[in-house]
Every structure is written in C-alpha cells, then in structure tokens.
Design goal:
Blueprint lengths: L6 H5 L9 E8 L6 E4 L4 E5 L17 E5 L4 E5 L9 E4 L5 E4 L18 E4 L12 E2 L15 E4 L5 E4 L17 E5 L10 E2 L1 H5 L8 E4 L5 E5 L2 E6 L4 E5 L15 E4 L10 E5 L20 E8 L2 H6 L2 E9 L3 E4 L5 E4 L2 E4 L15 E4 L4 E3 L9 E2 L14 E5 L5 E5 L17 E7 H4 L6 E4 L3 E2 L4 E7 L9 E7 L2 E3 L2 E3 L2 E4 L1 E5 L2 E5 L10 E9 L2 E2 L3 E5 L20
Parallel strand pairs: 32-42
Antiparallel strand pairs: 1-30, 2-3, 2-35, 3-4, 4-5, 6-7, 7-8, 8-9, 10-11, 11-12, 12-13, 14-15, 15-16, 16-17, 18-19, 19-20, 20-21, 22-23, 23-26, 24-25, 26-27, 28-29, 29-30, 31-33, 33-39, 34-37, 34-40, 35-36, 38-39, 40-41, 40-42
The structure holds 2-acetamido-2-deoxy-beta-D-glucopyranose (6 copies).
Length: 562
Amino acid sequence: MLRLVPLALSLAALATNALEWTFVQNGTSGVIPVELITISPTLMLLYDRADGNPLLLPSGEKAWAALWNLETNTPTPLSSITDTFCAGGAFISNGTLVSVAGQPLETPGQPPADGRMGIRLFGPCTSPTGVNCTVFEDPENIHLAVTRWYPTGLRIPDGSLMIIGGSNTNTFYNTGPIAEDSIEFFPSRPGEEGSVRPSQFLLDAEPVNMFPRSFVLPSGRVFVIANNISMLYDIETDTETRLPDIPNGVRIANPFDGTAQLLPLSPPLYEPTVLVCGGSAADDTLPVTNLSTQDPATNQCSRITLTPAGVAKGWEVELMPETRILMESVMLPTGDVLLINGAQTGYSGYPSVSDADGMSNADHPALRPILYQTEMPAGQRITQDGLPTTEIPRMYHSSASLTAKGNVMVSGSNPQPAVVLTSEFPTEFRVEYLNPDFITNGFPRPVVVSAPTKILFNQSATLKVDIPQSLLRGPIKVSLMDMGYVTHAQHANSRLVFLEHVLVGNTLQITAPPNNNVYPPGPAWIFVVADGVYSEGVLVMVGDGGNPPRPAQGVKIPVTSI
Ligand SMILES: *[C@@H]1O[C@H](CO)[C@@H](O)[C@H](O)[C@H]1NC(C)=O
Ligand SMILES: *[C@@H]1O[C@H](CO)[C@@H](O)[C@H](O)[C@H]1NC(C)=O
Ligand SMILES: *[C@@H]1O[C@H](CO)[C@@H](O)[C@H](O)[C@H]1NC(C)=O
Ligand SMILES: *[C@@H]1O[C@H](CO)[C@@H](O)[C@H](O)[C@H]1NC(C)=O
Ligand SMILES: *[C@@H]1O[C@H](CO)[C@@H](O)[C@H](O)[C@H]1NC(C)=O
Ligand SMILES: *[C@@H]1O[C@H](CO)[C@@H](O)[C@H](O)[C@H]1NC(C)=O
C-alpha cells in the first residue's frame, strides 16, 4: 500500500488519543538530581553538590554526580573535580555535554578548584551502562573567565555554549557586586579570551535574574527573559533590544522560578512562540524577611510569538487551575508541554523567608501535573485530564525530564542546605516515572527500526519505521528534539522542530532542519508520533559533529522571527 502524507496535513490539528498517565516509583538516585540530563537511550546524567550523599565513589568519598540507568533503576557514581551545584550547560556541536559554573567548595581528595569557574566535559557516551564514560576537567587550564553560580548555558547557532548571568555567591536576591551580569562563551570567541560582555539587561533584571530563560530564535538571535522583562540579543553585534514585559508583574527567573519553553518550530515558517508559566508576582523590592512561604505563586501562563506582528500583539495570558512556582516544563514529542513538580506558595532557595524556620521557602506542594496542549485554541489548552496525583512533594532542587524511552523521569527535591531526612520536605532520593498509557499497558507504538546517526542541514535521510495500522488514522509527526539541561525550573536548550517528511509504507523520508539557526548543530532525538502515541527516541547528530565553532550551514529561509 502506498501512503503519501503531505506535510500540510500532518500539521493540521487533528483529534488524537488523549493519554492517561501513571506515576511509578522505582529506585533511589543516591545523589539529588538538581541537574538532570538525558544522555543516551539508557542513561541520565545527574549533577548535585559535594556533601552528604549516600552514593559513594570507589574511593569511599561521597559522590555528587552519577549516571542513572533507566533499565536497572540504579545510579553509578561519577567522579568530578569541581562542585557542580547549581551549574548550567548544554550539549555542544561535537556531542560533548558541557556543564559550567557551580559551588566554590573545595572537595575532599581533589586538587583545589573553584566550582564557580568549572567547565566539565562529558561524553559522547556510547556505552549502554556508562562504563568508561567520565567527566573530564582540567581546572587549571579550562575554566570560565569569571566566577558564576546559577548561570544559563545555551547552545548557539555556531554550536558553542553561551553562558548567561549568574551570581558569584549563594544568595536569595542577586544584586550589586555579587551579581555576575555578563555573558561569555565556551570556547571563547576570538579576541574575547578571558573577558566577558557586560549586560545592561541582566542589571535591569536584578534582583530576580538568575538562570535567565533563554532561547535561540530562527533568526539566530537570542530571546532572554529575566525577572519580568525580556530582550532580544544579537550575538554578532552584542546588542540588546528590550521586548515586552511579562504581564501583571509576573517574574520567572530564580528565586521566583517560573518555567519557560520555546514551543515547537514547524515548517515552512518556523515561527517561534515562547510560553512562560508560573513564577511569582511578588514585589521584589521587599526584603527577603518580609516574604512568606504562604505567599501565593502566580497561576499565570503567558505566550508571545517572536515575529514583528507577534511582538506588536504582545503576551497572551492563560490561567492554570492552581498557582505554581519551582515547576518544571517538559516538552513532549507531541508538542504538548507537561508542567510538573513545584509548589503553590512561596519561593525558591534555602530557608530564608520570614517563616521558613529552617524548612523550605515554599509550601503546598503541587502534586498533580498540568498539560499544556499547544495546538488547541486559546482557553482550551490547559488541562489536568488524564493526569494522576503523586504522593511525593518535589519542591526546590527537583527535576523532571523526558527520557529516550518516552516517559518522564521525575526526581529530586531538597529545599535544604544539606541532606536532611527529617523535615516536612526532606531531601528526596526516590525516583518516579510518569508513564503514558501506551507504556503502562504495553500498547503498540511506532518503532523506529533504523535511522542514520548523522544528518546534515537541509539534507534528506531515510528511516525504516514500523507504525501499527491502528495508529495510522491520520497524519504522523516527526519530532526532532533536544531534551535540554534541566535545573531550577529551567529547561535550557529544550527544543522541538517538526520535520518535513514523506511516509511510504515502512520508509520514512525526512528532511533535516534547514539551517543551524533553526536547530543549533549538536545531538538530537527523533521521535515518530502517530495518533498521539510516540516511538522511543533515536539519537542523531545534526550537523557535521565537529568541534565548535561551526560555520553557518544549510539553506537560508525567509526569516519571520525577530
Ligand atoms: C523496578 O525496576 C526493576 C529494574 O528495571 C524491575 O525489575 C522492577 O520490576 C521494577 N519495579 C517496579 C515496581 O516497577
Ligand atoms: C573500559 O576501559 C578499559 C581500560 O581502558 C578497557 O580495558 C575496557 O575494555 C573498557 N570497557 C568498555 C566497555 O569499553
Ligand atoms: C515589571 O516590573 C517593574 C519593576 O517591578 C514594574 O515597574 C513594571 O510595571 C512591571 N511590568 C509589568 C508589565 O507588570
Ligand atoms: C517588613 O516587615 C517588618 C516587620 O514586620 C515591617 O516593620 C516592615 O515595614 C516591612 N517592610 C516592608 C517594606 O514591607
Ligand atoms: C535543500 O534541499 C532541497 C530539497 O531537498 C534541495 O532541492 C536543495 O538543493 C537543497 N539546497 C542546498 C543548498 O543544499
Ligand atoms: C568538543 O569540543 C570542545 C570545545 O572545543 C572540546 O574541548 C572537547 O574536547 C571536544 N570533545 C570531543 C569529544 O572532541
């Protein structure tokens, strides 16, 4: 049978399966996955801080990094020289995961090194169990230009890492000399070795400007949100242009952690829309001791399309059924966004607000996820239908990420300055998965039988697929995804590009993203989605896989994004 599926049809909003989800708990992580990154079909990388963890290195020292095996549900400790606490990062164009900045503490058994300047290189890791996959560090020779903690790492169109903002100490409000309101790159750009670019925007966003939410647009420029303000950044000219504020005083960067996602980019126009959910509309001029764990977070989501017309229209507001802060947003292969973890009241950070009393800065854990249905009309996008309630509060320092298996790993929580097991919101090592019904019940799902390991921009490639007939009621979608570097409600680098494709029998012909602005060169996962049910992800290198910086690649598209 010949089955030709034209692209226009595949993007039409068609009624598909509404998924039912189930939480399943299995295993303990040994370290707290403050940072959670999907590495391979079987492995997740966990980064924490160097104190108190039950997981031990072969040397007997306490570990602060680990590989989580999705098949055995067990952690393997990883050795790292510097303290990775509250670092940022991304995969770069050669497939290496770069983690930058962290905590200053010197760590037992290691040479003196300031984690705030740390640059850690991991992988590519091809062993299914992670044997011989190590964190490479050379702190004497490879380090940041300045000390940072809570910065954002973003893979940019040349495949290198842009490092944005942060603080140089552990703080609630980031302001004055402790704020590192600047940008640098790894590798450094020519002529900028050892120096940084000051950012007026980050200065204006004090004191709520850590982990600025940042996205590469199809124009190659970068959209950044911190506090309640936003800007467009031109990397080549080092120019900042202010864009509309988030409405109603809602602030979303740390310590008022709301979450943000670039919604899927679809051909032929790849028009970018950014979604922001949760955070707090509290007055950021109040002293921290005048804030309370009981202050309600916001129930606001807002989105803006980053085209000239979209910017003129401004942010469109939608409301969640509950207030939310410290919440993760997980892009699913369908293009819907899962909002999960966090609290209904309070703030990020260590016990510091007036009534925290040595406990969490937040209260009223959010136990039931929310689904943001991207392709539904406004007013109908936000639902909790089909979503279960967990028993495990996941507050500050919790995380959630899509795995290559297609479920969501949910982990961590530690709103404490150390491992504390007796608090109302203790250090949480239990791992859960949020499984869609096709995984829970073992229903038939699409299978990618074979796929190339590398695709060049604008190039066609052929996949062999096996899609159950029962799911071929309508057009399929092919999703090319970066699952991001998850930490602090921030899914840096999360990206989904729907690929143009033609399905003929079991042969799926895809076309790679047109150029390195639409998908910055680096690793990606391909998922095939049929009737709302998706395959496991297949890892592919997009671009030539060379070390950054890579030259511009692919074809120019009529750019509609600012
Ligand atoms: C937990 O994971 C292990 C290893 O995959 C598996 O054998 C076991 O059945 C799982 N338990 C539950 C309750 O799912
Ligand atoms: C890991 O490295 C050791 C030492 O280089 C080598 O002998 C071993 O074969 C490697 N194991 C795997 C699975 O690659
Ligand atoms: C953003 O915050 C600033 C400072 O708190 C405030 O003056 C401004 O009105 C806010 N913008 C919006 C749209 O609420
Ligand atoms: C902060 O709280 C103190 C003690 O309750 C109060 O005296 C002060 O006016 C408050 N400050 C602000 C700016 O609200
Ligand atoms: C881009 O891809 C299209 C479709 O495959 C092809 O016709 C065109 O020649 C390609 N352009 C370049 C510059 O490779
Ligand atoms: C990837 O590129 C970075 C930056 O140039 C380099 O430090 C690292 O060694 C490269 N990784 C591999 C595996 O070549």
